[in-house]
Amino acid sequence: MLFPEPIVPKLKRKVAMVSHDHTGHRYLHWMRHWRWLVVLGGVAALCTAPVAWAMRPVPEIDVATADLVARVADSDVTPYEGIFESRGGLRLPDLGRLEDELAPFTQTSRVRVWYAAPDTWRSDELLIGAERSVYRQPGGLWLWDSGTRRVVFSPREGTEPLRIPRLMDLNPAELGRRLLAEAEGETVVRIADRWVAGQASVGLRILPRSETSTIEAAELWVDPDTGVVTAVEIETGGTAPAFETAFTSLRFRTPEFDVLAFDPEGSGEPVRSAVTVDPVESVSRTSFVPLPQELAGLPRRNDPQAGLATYGEGLTVVNMFVIPQGNLGRQINSLPRVERPWGGEALVIPTSLVNIQILTVDGFEVVLSGTVEIAELDRIAGELVAQGAVA
User: Fold this and answer.
1) I need a surface site. Which of 277, 288, 289, 388 has the fewest CB within 10 A?
2) What is the CATH number of the domain that holds 338?
3) Which of the two residues, 73 and 22, has the higher pLDDT score?
4) Residues 258, 260, 261, 264: is their CA dihedral positive or negative?
C-alpha cells in the first residue's frame, strides 16, 4: 500500500526523530554504566593496592640469626609509636572477675602504643566511643578508662611482679622480645621474610624441644635495623595461630612528652590508689605457703619468695600458686570437677595454648597452668597429691 505523497516527508522526519532519540537514549544509558565501571574500577584498585604492596618481594637481608637474636634482646632501648592488632583464639568458660583481663586471648584487640623506654610508655585500647589507657611512668602505673571515668594509680619500682599479660605485653615488640629471651636452649631457625607495617622484616621460628609443650612453634618477624619485633604468631597445630599480633603502622621515633604524661587533674575524676591491678599480681605478692624449688622434676625459674612460681625450661612453662580453699571466686568455684587419672577430682580448663588444672591439697586450692599438655598437668598433680602437701 502506498501512502499519499504529503504524508511521506512527515513519516520520514518522524522515523528520523525516533531513530535519533533511540540512539541518544542508548548513548546516555552507556555513559551511565561507563561512569559506574570507572567507580567500581577505582574501588577495586584501592582494595587491591594494599595487597599488592604487601605481596611485593622483600629485599634480601644479610644478617646472621645469632646477630638478629642479639638485636632483639637490645631492642628495649629503641623508641617507637604505632598501632597493633592482636587476635586470641582461646575458648574459655566464664571465669567471672577475670573476664576483662583474659579478653585479649579470646577476641581481637586494636591498640595504639607510644614507647620511649621500659618505664616510660603508653597504650590505648581503641574501642567504639571510648579508650582504655595505661600510662607507665618511672614512679608507677596510671590506668584511665574514659568510658567508666575511672582513674587508678599503682606505684611501681624496678621489675614488675608476675601478672596476667596486659595489652602492652601483647604488643609484638614486647611479646617477641620476651619469647626470644625465654627461648634459651630452644631451636631458632630462619623462615621467609615479609613486609609488616611497611617494614621489611626478617622471619624467625622458635621450636620448643619439650614433647609436652602445647606450642609447636612461635614465629616472629623482626626489623633488622632496630631489632624491634613487628609480628608474632604462636602455632599450636590448628588451622590458625592460637595467638597472633602484628603492627599495622609503625614509626621509629621518640614520642612527644605530652603524649606520655597523664594528667590526673585534667581527668576531673578522683584517683584511686592500688598496690596491685589484677588478681594474679595480687597472688604473686602474697605467699600463703612456701612453694617448692622443684615441681615434679621441673626447676623453678623465678623469685623463690614470690607467691606465684614458674617452672620449666624454654617456652614450656608451668605456673603454680596456692590460696586457701574456697577463695577462687563464685564463678570458678561453681565449675564442675571431674575424675583425673591420678585418682582424685580437679577442675580442668583446656585450651589450645594454655591448660589449667585446679585441685585441692591439704586445705588449699592449687592452681596449675601452663603451655603444657593436660597429661603433663595430671602427672604434676599426681605427685603433689602423693606428697600430701603443697610445699
Assistant:
1) 388
2) 3.30.200
3) 73
4) positive
pLDDT digits (tens, 9 = 90+) for 319-363: 999 999 888 888 888 899 999 999 999 999 999 999 999 999 888
What's the mean pLDDT in 240-261?
96
> Could you list the residue range(s) of the whole structural domain that residue 15 is in?
1-56
Instruction: Give the chain's count of helices (H) and strands (E).
Output: 9, 20
Asked if 156 and 143 touch (Cβ cutoff 8 Å), the reply is no
Question: In the predicted model, what is the mean pLDDT of the chain?
Answer: 87
Are both 259 and 224 inside the same structural domain? yes
Percent of the chain with pLDDT over 90: 61
CB 136 within 8 A of CB 153: no
Whether residues 325 and 216 share a domain: the answer is no
Indicate if 267 and 309 belong to the same structural domain. no
On whether the CB atoms of residues 146 and 131 are closer than 8 A, the answer is yes
Whether the Cβ atoms of residue 316 and residue 328 lie closer than 8 Å to each other? no
Per-residue cell: 380 = 604434676
Same domain for 216 and 337, yes or no, is no
Residues 85 and 127 reside in one and the same domain: yes
Summarised one tens digit per residue, pLDDT across range 283-329 is 888 788 889 999 999 999 998 888 899 999 999 999 999 999 888 88
**C-alpha cell, 247:** 603492627
Look up cell 590448628; give the residue: 238
The residue type at 252: F
Residues 247 and 125 sit within 8 Å (Cβ to Cβ)? no
**Is residue 305 domain-shared with residue 372, that is, in the same domain?**
yes
CB 124 within 8 A of CB 138: no
Q: Which residue has the cell 617452672?
A: 311
Domain end among 230, 263, 280: 280
**Cα dihedral: 74, 216, 111, 95 (round 10):** -120
Q: What distance separates the 2 farthest-apart alpha carbons in the chain? A: 122
Instruction: Count how many domains the chain has.
Output: 3
Q: How does DSSP classify residue 301?
A: -
| Domain finish residue from 264, 280, 296 | 280
Question: To which residue does cell 574459655 refer?
Answer: 92
